[in-house]
Amino acid sequence: MGIDGKAKLTVIHHIGAATEGTGTVTGNEDLKRDGHHEQARPKLSEARDRVKDAADIGAIRDAAEG
Fold this sequence. Notes:
92% of the residues lie in helices and 0% in strands. The chain is an all-alpha fold. The protein is elongated and about 60 Å long. The two termini are 29 Å apart.
């Protein structure tokens, strides 16, 4: 993932944190939950990229050995 992608994920995380904070302050559980979910999106995306990288490394290693 490039710099632009990481920057986008950082912005999404901060928007989610602001949304969750707004929900907490106003007592709006739906808004709080939405913010929490929004913060999880970048973490899931990063985890997906790590799994893809690990799979690519495994395929390269297999090709080199085989």
